[in-house]
Amino acid sequence: MWRALISLSLALSACESALINPIGDLDVCPTVQGEFPPTDCAIVRGAVRTPSGVPRVGFPVRVDSMVPEVGYYYASSTALTNSDGVFEMTVYRVNRLQPRTQPDTARLEIKTYATTDPRPGDHPTGRVRVLMYFAELGETVRVTLTDLIF
């Protein structure tokens, strides 16, 4: 019974935090070299807290999402929260098969894991959908700001 109530509370908190997404400052998408470099990026800055508001320290978050309907793949490195529960990450769109929209946005899941060094195939312990703003590599992008509850 308690487990169901806690799960429901976490789910409602996650939904609420995903809806609050102010537009942040402007920054520049870093350029990436390689045989198959990504096409676009989003810069995400946020904080992770418990449902009672306590900052999560050393908490791993990352994006690794596929959108099969349009053939897009989104990925980031794992970011760990600092002593205030704050993190920053760059999320890359690996390919763009359709013309860009204005604004160029995607609602993606920021996931967390049981380990600070998750491997491909590890199952996330939590996820929150966040609306992110994208721009081409080397171009100015609106920073996505978010507060996550896990």
In short:
The protein is mainly beta.
SSE blueprint:
Layout: H1 2-19, E1 23-28, E2 40-49, E3 60-62, E4 64-67, E5 72-75, E6 79-80, E7 86-93, E8 105-112, E9 126-133, E10 135-136, E11 140-149
Parallel strand pairs: 2-11
Antiparallel strand pairs: 1-11, 2-7, 2-10, 3-6, 3-8, 4-5, 5-7, 8-9
Describe what this molecule looks like in 3D.
- Residues 1-20 have low confidence and may be disordered.
- This protein has one domain: Immunoglobulin-like, CATH 2.60.40.
- A hairpin with a 4-residue loop joins β4 and β5 (72-75).
- The protein is mostly beta strands and 150 residues long.
- Strands 1, 2, 4, 5, 7, 10 and 11 form a seven-stranded mixed β-sheet that branches. A four-stranded antiparallel β-sheet has the order 6-3-8-9.
- It has one helix at 2-19, and strands at residues 23-28, 40-49, 60-62, 64-67, 72-75, 79-80, 86-93, 105-112, 126-133, 135-136, 140-149.
